[in-house]
């Protein structure tokens, strides 16, 4: 077996000796991943394997033409030791949408959920213990894996799901971070694939994200590519803000990913009287917000401490602490995700043990 993770010694039963509360958002090899192949118009049964590499034809469409999409979701351990998934049906649905956008065969919902459950169950010992703040990140992906040279869809595909235990995407966790508005680089075009979770969007974001991080910013905030007037989102997460009137607002844009975390926060914000609204959010409104944040599976809620735009720095977290609404929403969301709070919307699904 080829292993790129020197701490991994092969499938086992012992609880791994990891520093759970301080895990980074990074890849650690786990016991199993699962793979399905699409050939002759149908998906194969899933095969569990411990091999972390894939044999790939050198002329695969994913390599040359970016025919690839993926998902991200998390499994959590609850106080009673159950392992639960958060809104897995939403990820299944978004992956089908992404597949359709780049002409790949869809993964049926049942197959998606079954594969995710099977691979989490097979890697149960890597689910971070309750109370550590860490979780098991699940990365399903679909790639065009057949040999084609012209620009057209592959005739063969691979769907695979791997998992890895992670800490927060932004390593400081629930602490306000500084962001910068990127005006000169677009992440996605309005009629393109910005609303699909395709790898090319992330490749396109590197050119803006890397220099911003070198300057000390957590990440960039992109503007709409057509008018450069409205906020789109950040590289790895959606954007939201709280207005002076105490309203939760979040951009409505054709070029952003429809975040499942944001959709959940909109529901929770409604329950907390924050009158949530998806609408175009003009960049010059940022001076009027009382709080702002990024949200996503990996980022959870990352409060925005400041936004630098042109020569201005608008500071939200003057005392370095997350604002009250960000805190209330973060607590409400994470309590449901780890089973500490009631789940009135049926968002959480237990993986049978
Ligand atoms: N926007 C982008 C570009 C993302 O990559 C992600 C992460 O998945 C999100 C938003 C947040 O989406 P979700 O909350 O479904 O993880
Ligand atoms: C996620 O939040 O799950 C994502 O896929 C974002 C990614 C940049 C880590």
What does this structure look like?
The protein has 353 residues and is an alpha+beta fold. It has two domains: 20-166, 2-Layer Sandwich (D-amino Acid Aminotransferase, Chain A, domain 1); 177-337, Alpha-Beta Barrel (D-amino Acid Aminotransferase, Chain A, domain 2). It has six helices and 18 strands. Strands 1, 2, 3, 4, 5, 6, 7, 8 and 18 form a nine-stranded antiparallel beta sheet that branches. Strands 9, 10, 11, 12, 13, 14, 15, 16 and 17 form a nine-stranded mixed beta sheet that branches. Bound molecules: pyridoxal-5'-phosphate (PLP) and 2-OXO-4-methylpentanoic acid. 2-OXO-4-methylpentanoic acid binds at residues 72, 169, 236, 296-298.
Brief overview, please?
The chain has 353 residues and is an alpha+beta fold. It has 6 helices and 18 strands. It folds into 2 domains: 20-166, D-amino Acid Aminotransferase, Chain A, domain 1 (2-Layer Sandwich), CATH 3.30.470; 177-337, D-amino Acid Aminotransferase, subunit A, domain 2 (D-amino Acid Aminotransferase, Chain A, domain 2, Alpha-Beta Barrel).
Summary keywords:
binds pyridoxal-5'-phosphate; D-amino Acid Aminotransferase, Chain A, domain 1; alpha+beta; D-amino Acid Aminotransferase, Chain A, domain 2; globular; 9-stranded mixed beta sheet; 353 residues; 2 domains; binds 2-OXO-4-methylpentanoic acid
């Amino acid at each position: 077996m080829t292993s790129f993770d020197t701490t991994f010694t092969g499938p086992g039963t012992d609880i791994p000796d990891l520093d759970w509360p301080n895990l980074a958002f990074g890849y650690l090899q786990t016991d199993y991943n699962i793979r399905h192949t699409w050939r002759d118009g149908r998906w194969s049964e899933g095969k569990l394997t411990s091999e972390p590499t894939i044999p790939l034809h050198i002329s695969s469409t994913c390599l040359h033409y970016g025919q690839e999409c993926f998902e991200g979701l998390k499994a959590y351990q609850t106080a009673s030791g159950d392992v639960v998934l958060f809104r897995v049906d939403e990820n299944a649905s978004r992956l089908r949408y992404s597949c359709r956008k780049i002409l790949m065969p869809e993964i049926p919902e049942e197959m998606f959920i079954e594969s995710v459950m099977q691979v989490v169950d097979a890697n149960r010992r890597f689910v971070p213990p309750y109370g550590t703040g860490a979780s098991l990140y699940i990365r399903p992906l679909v790639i065009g894996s057949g040999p084609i040279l012209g620009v057209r869809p592959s005739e063969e595909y691979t769907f695979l799901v791997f998992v890895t235990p992670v800490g927060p995407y932004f390593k400081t966790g629930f602490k306000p971070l500084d962001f910068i508005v990127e005006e000169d680089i677009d992440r996605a075009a309005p009629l393109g694939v910005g609303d699909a979770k395709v790898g090319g969007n992330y490749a396109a974001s590197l050119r803006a994200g890397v220099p911003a991080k070198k300057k000390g910013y957590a990440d960039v905030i992109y503007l709409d590519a057509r008018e450069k007037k409205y906020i789109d989102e950040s590289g790895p997460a959606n954007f939201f803000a709280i207005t002076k009137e105490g309203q939760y607002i979040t951009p409505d844009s054709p070029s952003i990913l429809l975040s499942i975390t944001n959709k959940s926060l909109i529901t929770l914000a409604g329950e907390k009287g924050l009158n949530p609204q998806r609408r175009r959010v003009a960049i010059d409104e940022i001076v009027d917000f009382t709080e702002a944040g990024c949200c996503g599976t990996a980022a959870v809620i990352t409060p925005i401490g400041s936004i630098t735009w042109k020569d201005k720095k608008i500071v939200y977290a003057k005392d370095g602490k997350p604002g009250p609404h960000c805190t209330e929403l973060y607590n409400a969301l994470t309590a449901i995700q780890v089973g500490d709070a009631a789940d009135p919307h049926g968002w959480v699904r237990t993986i049978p043990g």
